[in-house]
Amino acid sequence: MTAQTRVFDRRAALTAGAQTLSAAGVLAVLGMASPRDAYAAAAPAQDVQLLNAAIALEHEGIAAYQIGAESGLLTPAVLKIGVTFQGHHKQHRDALASAVRRLGGEPVAAKALGDYASELGASGLKDQAGVMKLALKLERGAANAYLGLIPSLAQTDLHLLAARMAGDEAYHAAILGGALSEAIPQNAPIFG
């Protein structure tokens, strides 16, 4: 191999290397670990919007359990479970609101209890089973919503928060489904 050939080979290698430098390599040079991190840095407003939608679901769940508690239709044991689940939803709301503030946003406010009662058809609740079926419907919807939220969040540190909340909602749904003697689903995955 001649000196001229070696120079050409080095130039070709450098040129080829520069042309094939991946997006991850460019981002690493810029101090970002991955394309996902670059997206996360640019998309806090979208995450705030998504988290506020989750907060709105939590407000709805809190209201539903309050409506159930005030209905006079629940036995003391079921009321105790409902109040416990409502407490979980309040903790979810608070964690989500904290995340929204950390991202520079303002958490969405709750509506009046009467608005939720109207939207949820609370006037049609006639017995404990009806209250529990409404709660079950909302818990299943929330579990699925959180599972759908995970891949949509740019801030990867929020994935674990959403996954934990999905687990809580699925747990609530399992308890309510069991109390209502619903059949165990034969096909998995049950959520998602």
Considering the chains and any ligands shown, give keywords for the structure.
single chain; 192 residues; mainly alpha; Ferritin; 8 helices; globular
Please sum up the structure shown.
With 192 residues, the chain is an all-alpha fold. It contains 8 helices and no strands. The protein has a single domain, classed as Ferritin, core subunit, four-helix bundle (Ferritin, Up-down Bundle).
From the spread of the alpha carbons, the general shape counts as globular
Instruction: Give the tally of β-strands.
Output: 0
Main sheet: strands, sense, barrel:
none
Order of helices and strands: HHHHHHHH
Highest-level CATH class: Mainly Alpha
Radius of gyration: 25 Å
Number of helices: 8
Question: What does the model show?
Answer:
It is built from 8 helices and no strands. It has 192 residues and is mostly helical. It has one domain (34-179): Ferritin (Up-down Bundle), CATH 1.20.1260. The protein has helices at 3-19, 23-29, 35-42, 44-70, 76-102, 113-119, 128-149, 157-179. Mean pLDDT is 85; it is low at 2-32.
Task: Detail the topology: elements first, then pairings.
Blueprint: H1 3-19, H2 23-29, H3 35-42, H4 44-70, H5 76-102, H6 113-119, H7 128-149, H8 157-179
Helix pairs in contact: 4-5, 4-7, 5-8, 7-8
